[in-house]
Specification:
Length: about 240
């Protein structure tokens, strides 16, 4: 898995122009070698190569309206599709995503969805970013602290600097640390506990982030996000 080649191929024009200098930095070269080596010696790396940069591919930089920050991809076969909290195909909806859907119902009256592919959100401007873009089979966090965080931090900083009136949804302590990268004088930062069943009751459920996001977008003359998913969404970003 050559992440440099994949990035050059999958990143859309504006993202590629803003991030291409990252590909010559030392952290990226070390990351590239690490992922390439692990792809030889491990049984599987997720998501599939063609979906590695799906968050960027589905939401080019000028189109970003909302940012949701996750940590690393799902680590079981067939789940990860390159969008944080999203699952591919007819996979069972993971617990955190079930709580996200529960909050959507509480907040906007949207009935829980029958599938967990969030591609429709991404195509409306919801940038679904995992801060680590690869993971090994059944080994969560296996590619953390190898360089991905530097790349995705740069992406968050780029959104803060180059876009206007973006909503950042930061759920849990890990995501909340990314607020240091965001200019809160021009963007809306929404904070809550993580939607995991272990913490959702501590502030995620009842946070009303989805209506608050749409209110902010409307106030800044952007169309609201339609958070309702179609029942038969194609799972391939």
């Amino acid at each position: 898995m050559n992440i440099s080649d994949l990035a050059q191929h999958q990143l859309p024009p504006h993202w590629l122009a803003s991030l291409k200098e990252e590909f010559s930095k030392s952290y990226w070269l070390e990351l590239k070698n690490f992922v390439l080596q692990r792809s030889v010696f491990t049984s599987a790396i997720y998501p599939p190569e063609e979906q590695l940069f799906a968050a960027f591919e589905n939401t080019d930089l000028p189109d970003v309206r909302v940012v949701i920050v996750g940590q690393d991809p799902y680590h079981s076969l067939g789940q990860a599709n390159g969008l944080c909290f999203s699952v591919a195909g007819k996979q069972a909806i993971p617990p955190s995503l079930r709580n996200i859907f529960a909050e959507l119902h509480n907040d906007l009256g949207i009935s829980p969805h029958s599938h967990g592919c969030l591609k429709a959100w991404a195509r409306q401007g919801v940038f679904l970013l995992n801060t680590v873009l690869t993971v090994e089979d059944k080994d969560p966090g296996s590619h953390a602290k190898r360089g991905w965080e530097s790349f995705t931090d740069k992406a968050i900083e780029t959104i803060s600097n180059e876009c206007r009136a973006v909503v950042f949804m930061l759920w849990g302590g890990y995501a909340e640390k990314k607020s240091l990268l965001i200019d809160e004088s021009k963007h809306l930062v929404l904070r809550a506990s993580h939607p995991s069943p272990l913490s959702a009751y501590r502030g995620f459920l009842g946070c009303q982030h989805f209506s608050l996001a749409n209110d902010f977008l409307h106030a800044n003359e952007y169309p609201p996000i339609n958070w309702q998913l179609e029942p038969n969404t194609n799972s391939s970003p």
